[in-house]
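Sample intake sheet
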Amino acid sequence: MEGARTSSVYAPESPLTKALKIVLMLVGILFVGAFGYILIEGWTFFDALYMTVITLATVGFGETHPLSNAGRAFTIFLILGGIGIITYGVTTVTAFLVEGEMNGYLRRRRMQRAIGKLKEHYIVCGGGKNGRYVIEELRRTKRDVVVVERHRDRVQSLLEDGVLALEGDATSDNTLLTAGIERATGLVATLPEDRDNLFVVITARGLNSHLRIVAKIDDVNVRDKFIRSGANSAVSASSIGGMRMASELIRPDTVTFLDTMLRDSANFRVEDIPVGPSHVGKTIQECHILASAGILVVALKDEGKYSFNPKPTLKLRAGDTLIVIGDPDHVHQAAESIGR
């Protein structure tokens, strides 16, 4: 399906590529001029090359040897072509220095190196309204995040906020590979159109079979199609918005409490902590970091079933997930300890 779309990854020429192009063009015009004079005037290579250099440099030293009419005509075309190439080279160098292209290139290189060092990070496809909320929450909970966004102004805004961002098409294999999808833990597709998010899901699942994928949908009728295509979850913003309004109407205090946990970075978080191999067979109370950090275990997920308020003496098994509430820093420490 990759062939159905043309990648729009932002990949401008590097300064090295442009410099090499300019050098090759200059060398080319020098050899064209030298061999032209050799063929037309019968000069030696050195005399022909010298004539070419002083002609292109417009230093006005005079002709190396008297020129025939054919030689003068060739000199005219050589000057016109050579001046064009020299002008292109000067303007290109000036653009790098004056317009900041070199700084932009170096910044992109640093960003790509930073992304290359990431693992178990999260990729957000789309930096619009929905994507911004996802990015903020991931950063609040100390998750590494890489954003893929088509619009350059949004990418620039994200970079200024300290977010790793790539300008490109999230449906492209190359873009997602650059974002480190093979090493990522999760991906969120928040593009405006359902069909684009569906294509992101298919592409991402093909590149990483273990990735957790969550997609935004506008039409609730396509949820099953997203799940079949590889998404772990498909979220309807309009459906959640309606449920939120109903909750505000009938249980306002509960909503306020949950909002406080979700929006206030200094408050509490509800988090999943998968049980790692080192804690299999231990009881919940033997996971001392849970008690010492003041973290509340509210549920245990075991083979797809949830046990509310599990007993401290309950032994943990492989594949279990603890649902906890606690301070974000403490929860992060607990996840690193128990997840090993």
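Comment: The chain is about 50% helix and 15% strand. The chain has three domains: 15-98, 118-241, 268-338.
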